[in-house]
C-alpha cells in the first residue's frame, strides 16, 4: 500500500499532466474536500464524493487560466501531508493576473485521499 506522501505526490503529478481521472483514482468514494474561500470563488466550498471533486477541477479550469502551479514543500506526518506552494493564473472573466502562495492539507487512509483542505491568499484574487 502506498504511503500518504507518495499518494499526494502522485496527485500533483497527475494535476501537472491535466489528468483528472488519475487524481480521482486517488480520492476515496466518500471524501471531505473543501476549498476555503468566499462564494465569489467558483470552486470554493465543500465536496463530499468523487463526482463533486471532478466538478471542483472543472470549475478551477473554467475560472482560472493556470500559468504556474508549483508545490514547493511537502511536510509528512503519518496519514497527513501538508504542502506549501505557489501559483500564478489569470482569473476569468476579469483577466486579472493573480500570484499567490497556497497551503493544501491532505489526510490519506488506505492509499486514498479522505480529506483535503485548500487555501490561498484570497485577497490576491480581488486586488
Structure description:
This protein has a six-stranded mixed β-sheet. It has 127 residues and is α+β, with helices and mostly antiparallel strands. The chain is built from four helices and six strands, in the order H-H-E-E-H-E-E-E-E-H. The protein has helices spanning 4-17, 20-25, 50-63, 122-126, and strands at residues 27-35, 45-49, 64-77, 80-91, 96-109, 112-120. The model has no long low-confidence stretch (mean pLDDT 94). The protein is 31% helix and 50% strand. InterPro entries: NTF2-like_dom_sf (IPR032710), SnoaL-like (IPR037401). This is SnoaL-like domain-containing protein. Pfam families: SnoaL_2. Residues 8-116 form the SnoaL-like domain.
Draw up the topology in text.
Blueprint: H1 4-17, H2 20-25, E1 27-35, E2 45-49, H3 50-63, E3 64-77, E4 80-91, E5 96-109, E6 112-120, H4 122-126
Parallel strand pairs: 1-6
Antiparallel strand pairs: 1-2, 3-4, 4-5, 5-6
Keywords:
127 residues, Nuclear Transport Factor 2, Chain: A, SnoaL-like domain-containing protein, alpha+beta, globular, SnoaL-like, six-stranded mixed β-sheet, 50% strand, NTF2-like_dom_sf
Separation of termini? 44 Å
Q: How are the strands of the biggest sheet laid out side by side?
A: 2-1-6-5-4-3
CATH architecture classification? Roll
CATH class: Alpha Beta
| Shape category | globular
Please tell me the overall pLDDT. 94
Hey, roughly how much beta strand do the residues contain? over 45%
Structural class: alpha+beta
CATH topology: Nuclear Transport Factor 2, Chain: A
Point out poorly predicted stretches.
none
Number of domains: 1
The value of Rg in angstroms is: 14 Å
Pfam families: SnoaL_2 (PF12680)
Domain SnoaL-like: 8-116
Protein name: SnoaL-like domain-containing protein
Amino acid at each position: 500500500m502506498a504511503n500518504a506522501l507518495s499518494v499526494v505526490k502522485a496527485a500533483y503529478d497527475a494535476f501537472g499532466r491535466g489528468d483528472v481521472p488519475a487524481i480521482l483514482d486517488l480520492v476515496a468514494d466518500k471524501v471531505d474536500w473543501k476549498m476555503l474561500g468566499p462564494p465569489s470563488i467558483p470552486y470554493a466550498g465543500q465536496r463530499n464524493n468523487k463526482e463533486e471533486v471532478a466538478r471542483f477541477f472543472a470549475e478551477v479550469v473554467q475560472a482560472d487560466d493556470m500559468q504556474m502551479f508549483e508545490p514547493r514543500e511537502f511536510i509528512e506526518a503519518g496519514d497527513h501531508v501538508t504542502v506549501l506552494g505557489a501559483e500564478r493564473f489569470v482569473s476569468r472573466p476579469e483577466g486579472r493576473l493573480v500570484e499567490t502562495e497556497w497551503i493544501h492539507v491532505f489526510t490519506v487512509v488506505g492509499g486514498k485521499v479522505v480529506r483535503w483542505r485548500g487555501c490561498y491568499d484570497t485577497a490576491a484574487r480581488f486586488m
